[in-house]
Amino acid sequence: MLYNRGRYYFSLIEMEVHKVKITKNKIIKILSVLLIMVGIGIMLQYPIRDFLIQRNTDTLLAITEEQMRENRENEGVIDFADVREVTTDAVLRASMYADASYMVIGRIQIEAVGLDLPILNTLTDEAMFLGASIMSHEQVMGQGNYTLTSHHMRNPDLLFSPLDRVNIGDEVVISDDTGYFTYVVTSTEVVPPTAMEVLDEIEGKAIITLITCADGGANRLVVRGELVK
Questions:
Q1: Considering 18, 137, 151, 152, which one is annotated as catalytic?
Q2: Has residue 13 been placed in a domain?
Q3: Is position 151 annotated as part of the catalytic site?
Q4: What are the backbone dihedrals phi and psi of residue 188, each rounded to the nearest 5 degrees, phi first?
Q5: What is the pTM of this model?
């Protein structure tokens, strides 16, 4: 009798141990799958981010000159404080614009480094993932100091990342519905974020100033050119 009871209780214990082992194995498998998925997500975040940015800029480059002319009547927000560090979430937010074509007022091209972006009439964090943002509604192509800014990406060919490869003498062409304006690069320099003088006009000269992050966001790369035609 006692022997049978002992075997019975021993069997129960074995069953419980077996259940614990099965549960433990399931947990290990689930955690393994989750870790693999997280790893894949981390590996794919940059290619996905790059794809979205390239798709967005290509779409906006298809805007017609007539649309650009109409868009000049729509003054967008200029908000320097809205600009934040580059994240995948920010790129996704920018991609959620149902239609950003109303922002496009022109185009900037630097053939020497393969830069080709739409110019947007607004400066927000999201807009800077779509193209080059103006820094003032008062600026006019071919006059004064025409300033543009955009994000610097890990991919050297996206947004304003190609500015790293710009050399003195390279041509910068901006255009809108009124025509084309060609500048020749005269200087490239890295300055602190507080160097707001780069936005000032230079008396008697028509210049272009292109600004993006440098040194991981600690400083700013400033590329400047003078109008030649």
A1: 151
A2: no
A3: yes
A4: -135, 130
A5: 0.77
